[in-house]
Amino acid sequence: MVKAYLISTGTELLLGSTLDTNSIFLSRKLAEIGVKVIGKSVVGDNPDSIAMALRMGLAAADMVITTGGLGPTRDDLTKEIACEVAGVDMKLIEAEEERLRDYFQRRHRAMPEINLKQAMFPEQATIITNHFGTAPGMYLPLKNNQVIICLPGPPREAEPMYENYVKDLLIKTYNLTDRRSASRIIRIFGPGESQVEEMLQEVMDQAHNYNLALLASEGEINVRVTAEGKDYNESVVILTKVTEQISQIMGKSVFGYDDDTLSAVVGKLLDNRNRSLAVAESCTGGFLGKMITDIPGSSKYFWGGVITYSNQAKENLLGVRSATLQEYGAVSRETALEMAWGVKRLAGTDIGISITGIAGPEGGSEEKPVGLVYIALVGDNLEQVREMHFVGNRNGIRTLSAKSALDLLRLQLL
Amino acid sequence: MVKAYLISTGTELLLGSTLDTNSIFLSRKLAEIGVKVIGKSVVGDNPDSIAMALRMGLAAADMVITTGGLGPTRDDLTKEIACEVAGVDMKLIEAEEERLRDYFQRRHRAMPEINLKQAMFPEQATIITNHFGTAPGMYLPLKNNQVIICLPGPPREAEPMYENYVKDLLIKTYNLTDRRSASRIIRIFGPGESQVEEMLQEVMDQAHNYNLALLASEGEINVRVTAEGKDYNESVVILTKVTEQISQIMGKSVFGYDDDTLSAVVGKLLDNRNRSLAVAESCTGGFLGKMITDIPGSSKYFWGGVITYSNQAKENLLGVRSATLQEYGAVSRETALEMAWGVKRLAGTDIGISITGIAGPEGGSEEKPVGLVYIALVGDNLEQVREMHFVGNRNGIRTLSAKSALDLLRLQLL
User: Fold this and answer.
1) Cross-chain Cβ contact A27/B18 below 8 Å
2) Reduced to 3 states, what is the DSSP secondary structure of residue B151?
3) Residue A59 is inside which H or E element, if any?
4) What residues 194-253 of chain B have any CB closer than 8 A to a CB of chain A?
5) How many CA atoms lie within 13 A of A44 on its CB side?
6) In 3-state terms, what secondary structure has residue B221?
C-alpha cells in the first residue's frame, strides 16, 4: 500500500476561520488511485515547522504533498525548505522565467523581481505547470522511491494541477492503477442515523474488501461505500453487490446515489409523469420553492407558489377560511389541507403541496410545541396530511420541513 | 507567547469526508486566551503516528491537545500513548470506575469490562469530567511547564469539556488572562474582495497590534479584525478604533458586525420603521422569502409573497400584462416593475420587491446572458429597478440575486 502524508502551510489555516480544503480534496483523489493518506499536518509560515513536518512525513510515508507557500513573498518558503530537507540545490530555470514574464506581460503589468524565485527549481524536479496563477508546482523524486510534491495553496490552482499532472506522475512512479478503488454514496431520507446504523450493522460487520461510512447531513443520511478489490473492475463488482444489498435493506428510503438531491429526484419524477406542481409555504417562507428551483429546468413542472407567512395571506391568496384559522389555528391539519387545495386551485396544477408549522424559537405552546409541522399533499384522487415533530433549531426545523415535503411527494410519485 | 499544538486522531478524518471541527473550535478558543496554535496534525488510529505527532508537538509547543481515541475499543489508544510519551504509568481510579458504572446503570445497561480502561489515569493527571459520554479527558502536566491534554472526539463532548474545565486549567497553568485579544467581524455587501482589499490597504499596512483577515463568502466580504493589546481592555480600545476607521472607509457598504445577517439587519429596519413587505420571486424561486424568514419574528413585517416561476403565474397572480411579457420578455426592467407593483397591490403592504433573471446554466442568450437579473423595489413615492450582471453558477447567481434585493431594500430604508 502506497502511503502519503499531507502538509498544508499557511498561518490563516491555524486561526480556525479558513478551511483546509486542499487536504480534503487530496485525500479523496489519492484514495481513487489506491494511495492511503496516513496523516496530515497544518503548519504556519514557519521554516522550522515546515521542515519538521516534512521530515515526519518522509519518515512515515512514500510521498509528502505540500500545499501553500509557493508565492513570491518572503513568507513563501515551502519549496526552499523541501529542497533543503531533500538536500538538493535550486537554479533559475529559463523556460519558467519566460513563462512568468509572459504571464505578467499578458496582464500588462511589470514582473516584480521578487517573483523570479518562482522560476527556481532543482534539476531533478519535474515542474508542474500552473495554468491559473504564477506559482508552478514541483514533483521532486528522492532516493528510495520517495517523492516530495509541492502545490500552491489556492484550490482553483492546486486541484487542476493534481488532476492534470500529479496524478499521472504518481501512477507512473508507483505503478498504480488509476482508480483502483470504487466508491458510491447511497442517499437516504427518513430514518435517523442510529436507525440506519442498526439496519446496516450486518453489512458493516461483514465488510472486509469494502467499508461503509455514515454521514448525517440536514436530515439526510449518506452512506459512502468504498470497495477495494485487487483492481478497479473487481472493486466495481464488489461495490455493485454491496450497493444492492444496502438498497434492498433500506428500501424506499433510498432516494438516490452520489450527487442526487431530493429536489432533482422529485423533479425527474414529476417530469417523467408529466405532473405540474405548486407550493404554499408558511413556516418555510419560500425554502421549499427555493429547493425545487435549485434544479435547472424546473420550470417544466414547477408553476410557482405562494409564501403565505401571515394569516391574511392564507385567507386572501389561498382562500383558507377564517373559521378554520380560528377554530384549528394556522398550524393544523385543517389549515394545511386548505392551503394545499387553495394553491392547487389558484395555479391549476396537478398537485398542490403545503407546509405550515412552528419553526421557533418563539411561538410554541404546550399543545403546539416548536417543531410541530403539518405537510399536506393534494391532487386528483389524492389527499394526504402528515403531522411531523421535528427536533432542532429554527434552521434545522425549516430544512427538515421542506425536505420532508419533497420526500412525501417522492413517495407518492413512485 | 504560549504555544499549542493540536492533534486530531481518527482514520475517518483522513478520508476526506469527515471534517475535523475540533481543531477549528480549539484554534478559535485558544486565541481568545492568548494561546497561539502553531501547528496541527491529523493521524489515523495508529500508535506510531500518534506517538510521533505527540513528540513533534512537544518539541515545538508548550501544550499538546489531542482529540479522539479515548473510547473503550482496541483502536482507542491516545491516552495510553500520551502516558508512554510522557513516561508515566496509569492506574485504575476508583471514583472514575464508579462514575462509569453509574453511567451504564442509569441507562439500564451492563458495563462491558472493556470500558474499565476509561477509568485508568496517571496519578499526576487531572481528570476532566465528560458530562455527555463515557470517556473522561485528561490534563497531564509534564516537566518544563508543558501539558498534554486529551479530549474525546465527539465535538458535543469535547467542546463543553474545554469550556468548563480545560480553559481554566490553562489560564492557571500559564498565568493567562481570559480573553486577552479582542476581535470583531465587519460585514460588507456590495464591493468585491479585491476592491475591499484595495480600500483597506492602508489600514492593513499600518497594522502592528492588530490584524485583518478578509473572507469572501456568498457575495459578502467579512473583515475579521483581531486586536492584540497588552490586556483585554487595551485590545478593546484598539479594536474600537480600527473598526471605526474601517467603517468610515467602507461607508454604507458595511451592513453589520459579527453575527449580523442582511436579513436580520433589514428586518430590524423594517420593524423600526413600521413598514410591511411582500416579495415576488421568479428566478430565485422562494430564496428571498426563505432568507427573510430565517429571522424569528419576521411575521411582524413580512406578509409573504408569490413565487411566479412561470409566466402564467406572473400574469394570473400578479397581473403582469401579457403585452409586457411579449414585448420585453420575463427578464426585463418592465416585468420586474409590474411584478413588484403587483405583489404590493395583492398584499397591501408598504413595500413590494421583485426579482426576475436568468440563473442558468441554460436559458441565456447573447442579448440576455446568464447572470442578467432585474430587481425592482416599489412603495409610496418609491420606484426603483436595478439591472445586475452576476457571474457564477446557478446557486451563486441566485444567492447574489436574493442578497442584492435585501441590500437594495436596506440602502433604501437607511
Assistant:
1) no
2) strand
3) helix A47-60
4) 213, 215, 224
5) 17
6) strand
Question: What pLDDT is stored for residue B115 in this prediction?
Answer: 87
pTM, to two decimals: 0.75
- What's the Cα-to-Cα distance from A54 to each of A40, A80, B4, B82, B359, rounded to whole Å? 10, 12, 19, 22, 45
Q: Which three cell numbers stand for residue B163?
A: 469550556
Please indicate if any CB of chain B lies within 8 Å of the CB of A41: yes
User: Are B279 and B407 contained in the same domain?
Assistant: yes
Contact assignment for A306 to B302 by CB distance below 8 Å: no
Quick one: pLDDT band at residue A288, thresholds 50, 70, 90?
A: very high
Nearest Cα residue in chain B from A276 = B310
Range of B238's domain? 182-257
As for how many domains chain B has, the answer is 3
Note the residue count of chain A.
414
- Going from the C-alpha of B334 to that of each of A222, A240, B53, B187, B326, the distances in angstroms are 45, 54, 64, 33, 11
Q: Residue A357 belongs to what H/E stretch?
A: strand A351-357
User: Which is nearest to A356 in space by CA: A326, A324, A377, A333?
Assistant: A333
Q: A140-188 pLDDT, tens per residue?
A: 999 889 999 999 998 989 999 999 999 999 999 998 876 678 889 999 9
Q: Residue B203 and residue B211: Cα distance in Å, rounded?
A: 9
Q: Are residues B319 and B252 in the same domain?
A: no
Residue B215: φ, ψ to 5°: -135, 120
DSSP state of A377: E
Mean pLDDT of A355-382: 95
Which residues fall within 8 angstroms of residue B274, CB to CB, at 6 or more apart? none
* Min Cα–Cα distance to chain A from B282, Å: 8
Query: Of A233, A257, A281, which closes a domain?
Result: A257
Contacting residues of B for A279, CB less than 8 Å apart: 286, 307
- State the sign of the Cα–Cα–Cα–Cα dihedral A64, A70, A75, A81: positive
Residues 6+ apart with CB under 8 A from B98: none
The CATH number covering residue A377 comes to 3.90.950.20
Same-domain pairing of B253 and B195: yes
Look at the block and give the residue holding cell 514557519.
Answer: A46
Question: Using CA atoms, how far apart are residues B63 and B85, in angstroms rounded to an integer?
Answer: 14
Average pLDDT in the A25-45 region? Answer: 90
Q: Note whether ipTM > 0.95 here.
A: no
Which runs of consecutive H residues, i.e. helices, occur in B33-115? 47-60, 78-86, 94-106
Nearest chain A residue to B213, by CA: A12
